Amino acid sequence: MLHKIMAFAAVVSLTACGEQLTLKDNEIGDYYAFSTSVLKNAGGARTETAPADAPFNFEDVVRNFSELAFVSNDPDGGTGQVAPWLLNRMIRWETPVRLEVFSDPDTDPRVLRALERDVRDFAAQLRRVTRHDIRLARPGEAVNAPIGLLSRKGQRVYAYGIAQAGGNFRSTSDFVATSPHDVFCYVLPGSEGPRSYPIVGAFTVIKRELPQPYYRYCVHEELTHLMGLANHNNGRPTILNSDQEFALLTKQDEIMLAMLYDRRLRPGMTLDDARPLLPAIARDAIRRLGAGRYISRSGGGT
Q: Which helix or strand (DSSP H or E) is residue 258 part of?
């Protein structure tokens, strides 16, 4: 499957703006403890899913979906540099998603089991919201979306394995081996090839040196990206907010994911193609999820 995962390259790698740091492996944990504390103290990493101070209305849902579901080339939007054929296109899975969690050999098995529970629970939430077939793979079942909880050393080992697969994987291997420290986690999805828009494979990396609560936060954000909401924006409340204000999937995010997997949309559609359909799709998603009580009747968020 690895040969299929590379076509989108780093389409939805999660990057934060900041000075590039050079740290020794034994300094990374302290750096993450400090940086996540700063984020929390600044009002980030909130765990409410329907916060009273961030109302959103129907127009917000349609606008935020328009900004998040069609691949951007804006680094602040979270997608970095992408192939021209992918710009302004919608991506999503059309085939079942099979997840597997793995880690460095010296990872505490209890930590890995806890992460597996988080992945299993969130996959069930995504399955309910999108009605798409996503779950942990059963023993012996083919995996197309592995999730690695990896130390810096583990990332280098994983990158070496990617490089050994052959093909044009050098840039991907280099990114996995040397991803900036201010990237807490990321997902790299891919298609069958150029101008093929259904996602057919992906792999996710969560930095093991992070404080353990952030493992769950990374699962929520990166699997949301993995499903096809490729960008970030300044919308509230959404886990894809550029300021990392929200750490868990919000009610608005659920609506947008339901919209993404509406069969009236299809991978490869442009925003111009989809725009006339979005109000009706949003209304139907809100109705199906029973989310009307979360929609503000007055002014919404940004």
A: helix 251-260
Peptide bond into 211 cis (omega under 30): no
The domain ranges of the chain are: 2-294
- Concatenate the DSSP letters of all residues of 187-233 into one string: EEEE-SSTT--EE-EEEEEEETTS-THHHHHHHHHHHHHHHT----B
Reduce the DSSP state of residue 112 to 3 states and report it.
helix
What letter represents residue 98's amino acid? Answer: R
Given a contact cutoff of 8 angstroms between Cβ atoms, the answer to whether 235 and 63 are in contact is yes
Q: What are phi and psi of 278, to 5 degrees?
A: -65, -40
Of 6, 1, 16, which Cα lies nearest the Cα of 179? 16
| Cα(173)–Cα(161) distance, integer angstroms | 8
pLDDT over 70 for what percent of the chain?
87
Helices (H) and strands (E) in the chain, counts: 9, 7
Q: Is 19 helix (H, G, I), strand (E, B) or coil?
A: coil
The answer to whether 115 and 149 are in contact (CB under 8 A) is yes
> Which residues share a beta bridge with 200?
none
* Residues 278-291 pLDDT 10s: 999 999 999 999 99
Four-CA torsion 44, 47, 49, 55, nearest 10 degrees = -30
How distant, in Å, are the alpha carbons of 10, 19, 24, 26, 51 from that of 78? Answer: 10, 17, 26, 28, 24
Q: What is the pLDDT of residues 100-129, one digit of tens each?
A: 999 999 999 999 999 999 999 999 999 999
